[in-house]
Structure formats: structure tokens, C-alpha cells
Amino acid sequence: MSQHDPSRTGQPDTPEGPAGSAAGTPADGPADAAGLAEALQKAEAQAQEHQENWLRARAEADNIRKRAQADVASAHKYAIDNFAGELLPVYDALDAALATGNATAESLRDGVELTRKQLKGAFEKFGLTVLDPVGEKFDPHHHQAMTAIESDAPPQSVLQVFQKGFKLHDRVIRPALVAVAKARAGEAGTAPA
Hints:
Blueprint: H1 29-77, H2 81-99, H3 105-125, E1 128-131, E2 143-150, E3 158-163, E4 165-168, E5 171-174, E6 176-182
Parallel strand pairs: 2-6
Antiparallel strand pairs: 1-4, 3-6, 4-5
């Protein structure tokens, strides 16, 4: 039997007092333990469910990423599919011209003109334009000067095109190779280049 010590708390030691708590009572102990076990079991089930959902979402995101990569690779690989289809008649026309054994120079020239027209039509359909700048002002964004020739033409104008350039929509894919006019050496205010 324990004796009461007034210096400790001023209250007797009882199961409901400060020395013992309501949660620690033998009457409430098994019920709280069962409740805690049930709450723990529910929390573990929820955690398991969240983990499974997370794993499914992660796998789905990974599949979407792989599908997107495959789509991009396919788009790059087959990007010119339609353009290639437009060029096939041009190829056929060239084959037919080569198969002709007794063609005259005139008929060959006419065939080449028609084939070139087909090719130009295919180019235009897909935004590929020819840069043929004879007589235009030299533009370093579209032309590449190969030489400068003394001329009576305005300085920096294109006199001759050695190789035509090409532009795909707004992007130059090959600049035109040109000869540019320069002022004659004897003209006032100019020095030879």
C-alpha cells in the first residue's frame, strides 16, 4: 500500500489521478489499442493504395513519353513523304525521256522544259522557291557574291547568277551564287575594289 506524500502533488495517488492517466487505465487500454490498430491498418491500406496509384501514374507517364518520342522520330523520318510523292512524276518523266531512242534535240528540250515545270510546281506546292536575282540589289541574306565586275549597272546589283538559290518558306537553304556590279575604276568618287 502506498502512502500519501503531500509534498509531491497534494493529491492522493489514484488510478484516475496524476500518477495514472485516463488512457492508461486498464478499462480503456484494450479499446484504445484496438482503435489505434484499426487506424494504423487503415493508414497502411491508404498508403498502399497511394503507392499503387503513384506507380500506375508513373508507368502511364513513361508510356506517354515513349509514345511521344516514337511519334517525333516518325515525324522526322517521314517528314518529306508528301514531297517525295510529288517528285515521283518528275522522276518518271526523266526516265521516259531517257528511254526515247530517236528523239530530236528539239523534242528533248521540250520534254526537259515540261519536266522542269513539273518540278517547279512540286517545289511551289511545298513552299520551296527559286532565288534567281538577276538585276536585283545584292542581299547578303539571300545571295553569295562570288565576284565583283566593273559595270555601268548600279553598284551592288546582281549582274549574273552562277547557281540559283532556294528558300524554304522564309529560310534560305541555299544562297544564290552571283556576280555583283561595281563602279568602273575611272568614275569619280570610287576606288577600285
